[in-house]
Amino acid sequence: MSDFVYRHIIWDWNGTLLDDAGLCVEIMNEVLESRGLPLLTLDHYQAIFDFPVRDYYRAIGFDFAVDSFERLSDEFMDAYTRRVWDCDLRTGGRAALQQAQKRGISQSILSAMQQETLDRMVDHFGLRDYFTAVVGISNHHAAGKQHTARQWIAAQTLPAADMLMIGDTTHDHEVAESLGVACALIHSGHHSRERLAATGARVLDSLAAVVG
Predict the structure, then answer these.
(1) Does 149 fall in a domain?
(2) 135: part of which helix (H) or strand (E)?
């Protein structure tokens, strides 16, 4: 990211604006413990979590011949959807949205969260007026968001070169590259700083650094 002033920011939601990585570890450990499998630390989670999440589930020890991915995913998401309301925005998130808006930069959300839940959360935090679009996915089995992202950007009139994506995972960088937009990543979300730095994208220490 350079001194170029972008005209539109595409925000990721989970782990970028919403501080939910700790909750994800907590819930997954409950699922693992119920099956006698080794538990996760936050550091291990940030080192291994990935999209599609089916591969992540397999990597942490689930046997789909015993428990189907769909059953495990439903179990996790049922708990997550009930308890995510206890999460807060990441420090500096609301201020970053306000500063971008004051500078005339339009903003949207592009998330791998199920659309209905995403809409409810954006309204829960009173953020709707900051965004020209809030785009989630149609189901919660989280194969990723590249297809949704390509559909969304194809409908835009603003050139991709004028857009900046802000995320917290290497998947966000992959999506940005597939869309032809610039990308900056913030650590302490769902991926470690080391994984983010390996993409070659700029890694931010805080959301305050997005709009300085």
Answers:
(1) yes
(2) strand 133-137
pLDDT digits (tens, 9 = 90+) for 140-160: 555 567 778 888 888 888 999
DSSP state of 33: H
Locus of tokens 């808006």: 101
Distance of CA 23 to the CA centre of its chain: 14
Total number of domains constituting the chain:
2
**Nearest CA among 189, 187, 191, 192 for reference residue 205:** 187
SS3 sequence of 173-197: HHHHHHHCCEEEEECCCCCCHHHHH
For position 143, what pLDDT does the model report?
56
Domain membership of residue 55 as a residue range: 21-86
Q: What is the distance between the alpha carbons of residues 23 and 79, in angstroms, rounded to a whole number? A: 10
